[in-house]
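Review form for a predicted model. The reviewer records the input and the model, then writes brief findings.
Reviewer: anonymous (R2)
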Amino acid sequence: MEKLRSFGYICPKCGKAVMAARSTFALSAAAARIECECGKAEMDIETDGTRFRLQVPCGLCGGTHTAECSADAVLRGRGIGLACPKTKQICCYVGEPEQVRRSMEELALRTEKEKAGDEEAFTDNVIMYEVLSELKDIAARDGISCTCGSREYGIRVRRDAVDLECRRCGGRLRLPAATDEDLDRLCCQMKLTIRGR
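Model under review:
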C-alpha cells in the first residue's frame, strides 16, 4: 500500500480545519494543491526533489506564509509543525495522517477559543508549564529556602510570573514566567532564596 502524508491548516476565511492526504509518490512527482471547501483558501505545495515549498494560508493571523522544508521532513517521520511568524504559534501540520488529525483537532479548538475572545490563563502557557516543572525539580532537591531560615513556602501563580512566599515571615521572590529568557534564567539556578522580611 502506498504511503500517505497529510497536510492540515485552518482556513483564514471560514475558520474550518482543512485536511487532505496525498501519496508520497504523487508529492515527489508533481505540485499539489489543498483547497478549503469554502473555495477561498488553498495551500500550494511544490518540490524540486530535495526541498518542498509550501504556501500556507494562516488561520491565526489571516495571512499566507511561505515555508521551505526538506523532502525528508515532508515525506518521512512523524511530522512537522509550521509556525506563524506573527503569532509564533503552529498554524500548519504535515506528517502521518493520524498525527496530523490529532494535531489539527487541538489547533481547531485553540483557534476557536482565541476567536471567541477567551483570554489565555498565562502570557505563554508553554513557558509557564516549563517554569513550574523546573520549580518542581528545584524543590525536589530541597533547593528553595528563605533568608529567615525557613524552608516552608507557598506558590502563587500569576499570568506572567510565579511568586514564592515564605510561610514564616511573608518574604517573597517573584520569578518572571513569560519568555524564553525567563525560563533560561531559571534553568541556570540550582537554588532559590526568598528574601525574608
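Findings: The helical segments are 24-29, 71-75, 97-115, 125-140, 180-187.
Further findings: Residues 97-115 form the longest helix (19 residues).
Recommendation: see findings above.
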